[in-house]
Design the sequence.
């Protein structure tokens, strides 16, 4: 998971200090790994490698762990229904992850869920690091460079090459030292409590589930009429079924921009598909499936066609110029707060919450705004810092 630029003059950490361990891929090996972790002490560094862009979904194809007294452990999750034995021995242990929202969902799918965590990316952002990819944070804290040449490989490959495993092991090699350094800096900066509230909030993180995921197609906004939207929806659904059945990333079957192109083109036959997209990697069998999907969409009666979504709040009359003026004022206030504190504005408060606050009937009403922020899930530290700024900014706008 190494990412982010770092100082090329730093010494290169190209291999784990204790070498690359054998990959755990048997029940006996998993039980032994659990015993080894149980014998260790302190926090555990955790990372996972996925095959994004190659396989369907976001499941983990390698899990890396390191704990004092346990060394580094690499686990192939594919042979196992879950990694419950490992999770059991880590109950009550703090997990150290970098960019935890990337890994928590796939670890949860393996029945691995932390009771406490420390996110080194979040900590680095609280401290105002300009770059907060793992490689950059490692360089800034412990002063080494991580080898990063295998960051985009297909982790579903079996067997995994030794060089890939070394790369994966490095992601947890110094992560505990990084966390110790960042923790000391957070306390020195008076932000340890802020960070702790964020870490506790992350324990409940789950990816957003969209009611109509096909609407997240890139370029969908260029489709203006319901019939085109229906065509895009049908193509997306067909692509999703093929990808799931073949365990292939959807983008390797049909790209979003190709769905949008087909949805707006005149297509009656497989040849029309080829004329629209070109031959390239497109098979005739799939071209026929796209044609069939388009025909199904074209046969739908008008009442069953999807409609363009209205923007939030469009069902009631708003003074749009007033809301815009409020939004600009609230954003400016949060930018100033960010400059003053050194905390990124989107960490201080999610931009979507700032925009929603501007559309409240009375955003200058402190109690109403505080209630809104609580209901929206803003943490206590976020409310303490942002509430006075937002109230003052809202009251500065006449209307």
Sequence:
């Amino acid at each position: 998971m190494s990412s982010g630029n770092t100082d090329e003059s730093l010494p290169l950490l190209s291999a784990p200090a204790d070498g690359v361990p054998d990959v755990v891929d048997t029940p006996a090996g998993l039980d032994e790994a659990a015993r080894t972790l149980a014998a260790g002490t302190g926090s555990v560094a955790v990372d996972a490698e996925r095959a994004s862009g190659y396989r369907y979904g976001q499941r983990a194809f390698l899990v890396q762990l390191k704990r004092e007294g346990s060394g580094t452990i690499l686990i192939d999750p594919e042979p196992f229904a879950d990694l419950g034995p490992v999770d059991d021995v880590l109950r009550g242990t703090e997990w150290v992850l970098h960019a935890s929202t990337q890994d928590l969902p796939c670890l949860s799918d393996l029945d691995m869920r932390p009771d406490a965590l420390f996110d080194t990316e979040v900590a680095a952002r609280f401290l105002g690091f300009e770059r907060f990819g793992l490689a950059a944070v490692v360089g800034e804290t412990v002063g080494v460079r991580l080898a990063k040449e295998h960051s985009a490989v297909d982790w579903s490959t079996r067997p995994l090459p030794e060089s890939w495993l070394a790369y994966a092991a490095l992601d947890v090699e110094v992560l505990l030292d990084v966390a110790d350094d960042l923790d000391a800096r957070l306390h020195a900066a008076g932000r340890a409590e802020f960070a702790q509230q964020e870490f506790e909030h992350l324990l409940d993180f789950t990816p957003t589930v969209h009611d109509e995921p096909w609407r997240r197609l890139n370029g969908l906004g260029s489709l203006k009429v319901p019939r085109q939207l229906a065509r895009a929806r049908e193509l997306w659904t067909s692509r999703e079924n093929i990808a799931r059945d073949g365990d292939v990333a959807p983008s390797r079957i049909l790209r979003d921009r190709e769905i949008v192109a087909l949805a707006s083109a005149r297509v009656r036959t497989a040849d029309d598909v080829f004329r629209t997209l070109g031959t390239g990697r497109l098979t005739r069998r799939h071209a026929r499936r796209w044609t069939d999907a388009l025909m199904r969409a074209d046969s739908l009666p008008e009442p069953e066609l999807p409609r363009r979504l209205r923007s939030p709040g469009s069902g009631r009359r708003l003074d749009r110029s007033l809301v815009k003026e409020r939004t600009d004022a609230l954003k400016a206030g949060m930018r100033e707060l960010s400059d003053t504190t050194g905390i990124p504005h989107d960490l201080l408060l999610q931009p979507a919450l700032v925009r929603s606050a501007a559309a409240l009937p009375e955003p200058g009403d402190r109690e109403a705004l505080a209630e809104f922020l609580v209901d929206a899930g803003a943490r206590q530290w976020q409310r303490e810092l942002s509430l006075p700024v937002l109230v003052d900014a809202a009251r500065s706008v006449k209307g």
